[in-house]
Amino acid sequence: MSFYSKGWFDFSYDLQKYNFDIVITEFFNRYAEKNNLDKIDSLGELHLLGLQGVSQENLRQIMFEAFRSKTFQSLYKSFGKEIIDRYFDKYAYLQKTPTARVQFPHSESTSFHTDAWYGHGVNVKSFWVPLVNVGIGSTLSIVKSKSLSIKLIKKITKEKLDLEQINNLAGEASSPFIGNLGDVLTFDSETLHGAKKSLWDSSRVSFDFRISPDNNLGSKPKSNFFLYSELSKKEKDYNQSSTLNEKTTNLLGISYSNNNFNVTSKAQLMLCNSYAKDSNIPIVGNEAEIDALDHMPVLRNLITNSFNNSNCILVFGIEIFKSKSQAIEILKLSEKNNTTIIFCAQGIHFTSLDESSEIMQFI
Ligand SMILES: [Fe+2]
After folding, report:
1. pTM: predicted TM-score of the whole model, two decimal places
2. Mean predicted confidence (pLDDT) in 37-56
3. Cα of 192 to ligand 1 centre, how many Å?
4. Which residues pair with 304 in a beta bridge?
């Protein structure tokens, strides 16, 4: 893609149409109101909520809740579609939920890295959307050219540089991105980037997401991405005044654990329950498999008899299956009974046998 000849470029978007900063600020202010905290005027003031006892990580999690709201999702999908229409084609995939970033004044941030190092496919492009103005002292820095990035990556790999050495090397070779609210920095998955310590008195808040031109998504599951055709669908019950606890799914889940592999039941249920919480899926019960019986009678029963009106079973991961044939049997049963199975460790939501190849590759 010629746009990425130097490994990155930037562009602007219509702030009136895509008022992400206002939507997110309102979301934080609803949180503040609910918890008797002082409201903020803009996201640059987010550290003021921090001074009232809300940690940087809590704030990031609140942002993720905002991202899953129908209001944000609707804006975001149309934003993603516009970008795909401009720079990609209809075979592109858009990451479903962007990643939130919050950097308090004078705090440290992300080490230099490439997104490919974190499992993104080689053709995947990242989009960094600051929700405040950014510049020298509080921004993302990016290595100036693609060729330089590739050269540095070779050196890092060959000389087995430690994190501090990587930061120094990439930091020296990079330039800070200077931009206003309404600007986007996009770069390819092999371009080194990172953020240095903030020198500003305001918070830096941004989100980022990825678009893949094809189905080479690296180690990321397809279920984390929207197909282009899904971007035009209107959100059901679209509602401007979304609430903090707005439901994004119609699923009602049961957490299921199984002692046939080497992860404790407690750890399995912790993952299932936190995955459910993160995905706004209410949990109406949890069940453990009978260890002595290999044919999974408890799981089969949950699939065929909707327990407490559940329509979804959250399991640790594909590790619960001992063989491909066992997996196929269970998946067929679940398709027949319209029961969703969520494999939390892989982030795969199984609803139909069309998706079974994604699962089989792990067994
Ligand atoms: Fe990154």
Report:
1. 0.77
2. 92
3. 8
4. none
Ligand 1 centre and the CA of 46: distance in Å? 22
> Which class is 2-231 in CATH?
mainly beta
Q: Can you tell me which residue has the tokens 């090397």?
A: 169
Alpha-carbon distance 194 to 299, whole Å?
Answer: 45
Handedness of CA 269, 273, 278, 281 (dihedral sign): positive
Rounded Cα distance between 189 and 204, Å, is: 23
Helix axes 163-172, 146-158, angle to 10 degrees: 160
What percent of the chain has pLDDT above 70? 95
What distance in angstroms lies between residue 115's CA and the mean position of ligand 1's atoms?
A: 5
User: What are the sequence ranges of the domains in the chain?
Assistant: 2-231, 253-360
In terms of C-beta distances under 8 Å and separation of at least 24 residues, what long-range contacts does 298-304 make, across chains too? 298/256, 299/256, 299/258, 299/330, 300/330, 300/333, 302/254, 302/256, 302/339, 303/330, 303/333, 303/334, 303/337, 303/339, 303/341, 304/333, 304/337
What is the distance in A from the centroid of ligand 1 to the CA of 163?
A: 15
Homologous superfamily of 253-360: Resolvase, N-terminal catalytic domain (3.40.50.1390)
* Residue 113 · residue 193 · CB < 8 Å: yes
